[in-house]
Amino acid sequence: MNFRKIMTVILALVLVVGVFAGCAQSSVTTAAAAETTAAAAETTAAAAAEKIKVGVIYISPKNDGGWSQAHATGFANAVAAVGADKIDLKEIENINDADAQQTETALNQLVADGCQLIFATSFNYMDVVEKVALENPEIKFEHCSGYKSADNFANYFGQIEQPRYLSGIVAGRMTKTNTIGYVAAMPIPEVYRGLNAFTLGVRSVNPDAIVKVTWTNTWFNPQLEKEAAISLIDSGADVLAQHQDSTATQQAAQEKGVYGIGYDNPMYSEAIKDAYLTAPVWNWGAYYQTRLQGMVDGTWATGSYWGGMNEGVIALDAMTALVPADVQTEVNGLIDTMKAKGNDFVFAGPIKDNTGKERVAAGTSLPAADQFSMDWYVEGVVVAE
Amino acid sequence: MQPQNRTQPPAITMQGISKTFATVKANDQISFSVKAGEIHALLGENGSGKSTLMNILSGIYLPDSGEIDIHGERVIFRSPRDSMAQGIGMIHQHFKLVENLSALENIVAGTGHGLLLDRKAARDKVIALSEQFEMDIDPDRKIASMSVSEKQTVEILKVLYRGSQILILDEPTAVLTPQEITRLFHILHRMREIGQAVVFISHKLNEVLSLCDRVTVLRQGKTIGTVYTHQTTATELVEMMVGRAVDLAIERPAAVGSGQCLDVKNLTVKDHDGVARLNQVSFTLDHGEILGVAGLSGSGQKELCETIAGLCAPNGGSILFHDNQIIGKSPREIIRLGISMSFIPEDRLGMGLVASMDIADNIMLKDYAFHKGPFLNRKEARAKAKRIVEQLSINTPGIYHTVRKLSGGNIQKVILGREINLSPRLLITAYAVRGLDIHSSYTIYSLINEQKSKDVAVLFIGEDLDVLLELCDRILVLCNGQVTGIVNAKDVNKEQIGLMMAGETLTESEAV
Amino acid sequence: MRLRIAKKDTAGGYKAVLIRVGAVLVALVLSGLLMTAMGYNPISAFAAIIKGSFGSKRGLINTITVAIPLLVVALGLSISFSMRFWNIGGEGQLIMGAIFATFVAHNLPVNTPTPVYLITMAIASMIGGALFALIPGLFRAYSGTNETLFTLMLNYVAIKITVFLRLVLWKDPEAKGFPSIEAIPKIAHLPKVFGIHSGWIIALIATVLVYVFLKYTKRGYETRVVGESERTAHYAGINVRRVLISGVILSGGLVGLAGFVKLSGAAFTLSESIGGGNGFSAVIIAWLAQLNAPVMVIVALLFAAMEQGAMGMELALKIPASVADIIKGLILFTALASEFFIAYRVVIEPGPRQLQKQAQKEDQV
Prior knowledge:
Chain A is α/β, with parallel strands linked by helices.
């Protein structure tokens, strides 16, 4: 037999085996699935019928290490707590929140799939969620970080400013150059709020420190985030904080030998052990559990949720050994106050903006509505060139 | 390299060669044999299987069946490299040279095995070869500065340098002056003397008869026969090629002129670099007259055609058509006046046809705009296309056949058919029979004569001097953009025209 | 054994169909193998793709909704491509169309009748797209500037213009500090017909018009001649410049119209992501359909179905989006490869040793 024939036969075999393997495996699994289904059909028929489909759309991959991962972890924990036999979670990743058409078709897919409650976990989904909620009054929607709501459309968020303020204290204590870098995503009130809370925390313990901010205009672009972080370090920052969906800023801090404060999730890992101090983190499971339970019990109701540290939906990650014990004690000592007073404590006057104008008088706090539309910098923030 | 020896096996023996493309039998049991020390002509009309056979010999195609022996050794060519290794070298019609390298660099390119080239040894070998074959070539000159004939010589040197014992030349004389042809033949004679085998592909029967020892004729993929040139005649060869007797004389009906059609005065055209491509060209052309234009390729023929057709703006001079100045008019206005130009470029499709469209859509290319309304009048185009296909016996499955898939001769018939169908007052045709076989060429000559008899003025730009001398009433000779003479075709011979093409003016040539 | 790639002389009818069907099968087998290797059941995955794209009324509506702007952009680009004007600027022209339409939507008096409102927006979007295509068109026509890079870079210009509008000029004061552009008013929404926004009617009309234009009008004929060879066009008396410019205007205008369709039918708010990559996907659609308008309808639908099917697969099998993307890529890759095999063929030639053996055998006989 010659070479060509051998090659042809081998190629044919590979294809045939491939097809059969595919079919065989699938038929086996289908058969097995059919059996189990059949066997379990009677006992779980009622339960299966009650299994509630809950849909989620994420802006980035579920394992982005940041924002979407925090939500996905929250959902996983909530489902485990409420009962995997009661909730069927349906997730779609990578839905660009600025692409209205894609958002709408993704939401429609979830509706078509029979979801009864649908979560949209990024700000820009808001208008589309409103539209789809209006078209599907029998289905419930929840939107994270927005401000619109309806009878079947709730919004929810957390006062991440509280742990941000605390992490600011850590940064203010740790900096030697009195310059702290901050990589910020989009110029929207949520990000201004976090940046300002952080800076207020820094300046509460170190009035000489400044916070240099760089805007990336993207939520998730690790390369760009890293470049921004490095340029901040090059301009003198020795502690970095971030409002992004990836861990790139921490990696930059590790590589350049400075400290880094994370965001979204507890971010400690071997790879960034010399940089990572702490992070303001989300614990969405706390909120999602009550909402999913509400669906199971039939008590779900619309509303606007804005939870603080006292509700457990947000927290400060445990500080690493890099943070001196006295600083740890100082920060931990504030947690109870924070839980008691919330954002009124964070945005308590007197507060000047970075042009020197007084924004909050002494003895008062910034009203929630003004926090919600914040688009200015507090004193101490410098926008990097 | 020994002189020819009777007991020596032939240089090439091809036996029972068959090759089928899709449904077409391009080669059907062809046998072909060339002795060492022989110049052997391969004759055949377009589509007779010559190119397929030569492509098989040079390793481009693998035959479906049949055997090839080179110097008595059975060989199988899977690639041009294998063929080259057996000492077979092919000179194509289009030269494959790098313009901004020297002759030497082109000759040795691709031969070295190491990175470094032994320049001195290579140079000595090239000089030795050119002396042996009495070629006049400066190895250090850039190809870009060479004439067509010199480039051809470099191509020949290139294959000789690689040790070729067998040389295939595809229509080598098409681009040469009579004097250059003589020089080429001299080189080929030298090769014959030292026992090399030469395969000579040409349409020009008189060249074949004067140069070659034997001729093999192919027709429709089959070998018709091999004959000794001293035992045959042109008429006999044509009969073998076409399959029936053909009258080889080109008619020249008397000019019936009804007055002047075109009056060109001091026409000057410069290219981007400011070099004059046409320099003070003046001539007149009457209705019912065929004015031939002779000249080496690139002597200004293209610029002349394009200027009259309005495709290129002249730098000076005037063109009067029926006493109307046409310089400055748009191509479409000129088409509307009844001036029709067809220029067959070397690749045939470059200008004049839209290769990806079918015949019907190509037929309307020149006159679709003259119909009313925003829509195309396809019905009329279809009818016209059918008529043209019939009249010119264009070989095509139908008028919806894509032009690109037609053979060269049929493509040219489509162009010429369309131009004539416009009923022009002035017909300009350049290289109308370029690469066509005898039968198709004669069809086109008679089409042109028919136009002449219809009182159309014809400007015929040609390559084959024999044809120009027989077909045209007068001949204008161009050299480097200048007119070196306008003569009555009856009063001159080929050699005189050749000298004028090389730049000598009429009076001097007459003096010689 | 040696492999060689050769251009096919005939791209024959039934063989081409056979190759395309084969490509689909290869795509299925390959992605099936991949899914099996990753522990997913390929049969239910394919079922989920079909169910997600065509299986339910909502799925079908989704698919058509996604296909509409893809089709309109592909139609627009096909005019550019038939004159070999390499318009890679679909995304930018679509965005410009949406910007112009947004401007009109926010500035017409509210008591304008809906049809007038919509038609004015449509015209504005066509002007926007056309103007944006005209810039590289003029450069190409008058100074021979390469349009490929030019149109490509203009995409980013359009995106940045939108960002500027969103952050500064058109920042919605009602959005509580969020930098976004105000949504267009209800009156500017395309009404729904059969449950889908009426952009589908616009797309089908555009399909017929583009088909008739390229095939039956003088200008369409000229466009194709110019695409084949500018020299030939010149020779035939065609004013190449005029054809180029009018073609570019038509092409950009249609792509701009897609911006209006997307704005008024699906997005309602202008943002830099309104293109959603349609300008690039449409390049593939136009060429896969070989610039044939009716075929583009089918290709655009299949393309959209692939998107929706991928989402359906994510939902049904809970596979990550990245795996769905790989499968999408695999299908697209085989589709493109099949076009290659329709135009070219791979010749398997016997190697030297084999031929020698053969020759020896024959000699013995």
